[in-house]
Amino acid sequence: MKDAYEVVIIGSGFGGAITGCRLAEAGYSVCILERGKHYKKGEFPRKFDDSRDWFWNSKLDFNGFIDFRFDKDIAVLLSSGVGGGSLIYANVHIRAPENIFKQGWPRDINRDVLSSYYDKVAEMLNVSPLPEHKNLPKTEAIRKVADEIGKGNDWDKPDLAIYWGEERVEKEDPYGFGIDIVQTGCRYCGECVIGCNYYSKNTLDLNYIPVAVNNGAECFPLHEVSKIEQEDEGYNVFYRDLDKKTEGVVFGKKVIVAAGSLGSTELLLRCRYQYKTLPKLSKSLGHNFSGNGDFLAGALNTKGEFADLQPRNGPTITSFIKYWNQYPEFYLEEGGMPLDELVFLAGAFRPDSDYLKKLKRSILRSIFPRTIFRRRSNKLFIETIGKGEGELPSDMMLFLAMGRDAADGQIRLKRIFPLPFFPQKLDLRWRNKQSMPLFDKIIEEQKKVTEGLIPIWVCNFHFSHQKLSVV
Ligand SMILES: Cc1cc2nc3c(=O)[nH]c(=O)nc-3n(C[C@H](O)[C@H](O)[C@H](O)COP(=O)(O)OP(=O)(O)OC[C@H]3O[C@@H](n4cnc5c(N)ncnc54)[C@H](O)[C@@H]3O)c2cc1C
Ligand code: SF4
């Protein structure tokens, strides 16, 4: 790594990778610092013997790709690794409708302004819907139910960032980026949210990042930024090299903080209030975060023609019903799940799990005193999803809804005990009250859809699961 760059970018998810690529193309010297690993083809874990391969927690030396945070009011799911959230996202590309920008956005940002950029991203990520010839039971089921409940015109298949080349067949640089990547046609295995081991997902490490590197950008995995300090002509960025266990500093004339909703906010809050290196940052920092209206639910024991929905098959999400042009607005998407892996994740939160034991030890050491994985939610999770038996039934359907919530959350630093020498921890405050019209409406509409699938049991993870929202 050089001592100085024109631009230092923190994080390699959508914000960091795209900015890094375009700045490098424009001739700037660019350094991207990413806390997570760079996963190569086939490197996402599938064995369940070491939770360190799966989960992220730098203080405990867990360098996995899933960063799962349970706070008192809200649970947040994030990713770490070169490509950021694209590694575990559901590949869905939906463009925000025009009216979203009427409230809470800077005046100059609206759908018209963003349209050409949406086009560019769509082109770069080569998005298109699930191919017609691939008729999955879960996709077809939702289409039929949408028809039955009078929402047939609002059913659709979203654009997905997936390489639909010939199934399981490898192709070198299929999109002609001039990069040394061999992708494989999607095999419909449903593992998108635990990292695609076949280079079939068009994740950012297969397009924006290598194109940035081809244009001279440098990307450093396992480099976690801890502090930003202003200097006359720019900023010193302090980092920990998690591989070599060393610390370092790099200078950037400009710094782009693209470490995700929690990562960016925590870093900036610490720089403003704890280290006092960026004291001029706005006091609004951390206010008005949104949970994206995310709402997870499921239908179990679906019946008749819907008895075999095969939730593991196909990409995670393949279709949606739109509840737009109404109040409150949202999308309802069906969701597939990787079965055994999900059961493992549930198992990781068992009271006797290796992962939990380590966290508890760290709690004793006062590193994470507020990281609480409640037994109740753990039990519920295992009982409802995995039944602790290692298999998820085929007669079930998951739903993910997302819409416009009240965006009245607050991210702040809080001392474990109100004494100055105790460390400050990130604290997420989230109240459902103002967002209840949205969630009530989602529950109402979800019920109609699940009744269409004739289930005998419907579970709303959102509220039974510690009153949490999963972002
Ligand atoms: C399971 C799941 C499914 C989703 N599905 C969809 C979907 O289908 N469609 C959609 O549009 N959105 C989806 N999302 C949301 C989407 O992934 C996020 O909105 C998006 O990733 C945010 O981009 P970002 O660049 O802000 O942050 P991220 O993509 O989270 O990137 C931030 C990066 O910064 C790194 N970082 C954090 N702190 C530091 C630090 N201190 N130093 C160095 N690096 C750091 C992180 O490791 C990460 O790689 C999904 C999210 C999840 C969790
Ligand atoms: S369905 Fe499987 S092969 Fe296709 S993108 Fe998802 S993880 Fe990759």
Proportion of residues in extended strands:
15-25%
Number of strands: 23
What ligands can be seen in this structure?
Answer: flavin-adenine dinucleotide, iron/sulfur cluster
Whole-number mean pLDDT: 86
Q: Helical segment tally?
A: 10
CATH architecture of the domain at 133-159 and 288-339 and 392-471: 2-Layer Sandwich
Highest CATH level, the class of the domain at 133-159 and 288-339 and 392-471: Alpha Beta
Strand order, main sheet: write it out: 12-2-1-15-14-13
Percentage of helical residues?
Answer: 10-25%
Q: What class would the helix/strand composition place it in?
A: alpha+beta
The end-to-end span amounts to 34 Å
Q: Biggest β-sheet, characterized?
A: 6 strands, mixed
Using only C-alpha atoms, the radius of gyration works out to: 22 Å
Quaternary state, please?
single chain
Low-confidence stretches: 365-390, 461-471
Q: What form results from the Cα inertia axes?
A: globular
Q: CATH topology of the domain at 133-159 and 288-339 and 392-471, what is it called?
A: Cholesterol Oxidase, domain 2
